[in-house]
Amino acid sequence: MKHEYVKHDKCEIDNCLICDGGLLVCTVCKGAESSLTTECCGKPLTDKDQYCVSNGDDYENGKWVRPYIHA
Q: Which terminus of the chain is less hemmed in, N or C, by CB atoms within 10 Å?
């Protein structure tokens, strides 16, 4: 599943991190930057998930790979 990134239409936020700074945030898994996996896992990432992804876990081909804690 591909990530669905937040997009602002007619953004009125000064110095918006998404529009002006290029911040990527997935509307489905809620991952952002270092907590984005290769593919979207299809559900909101828990704090533990985000920590693990930032430390080497990944989600690809429908499963967790290179598990940090997801054994």
A: C
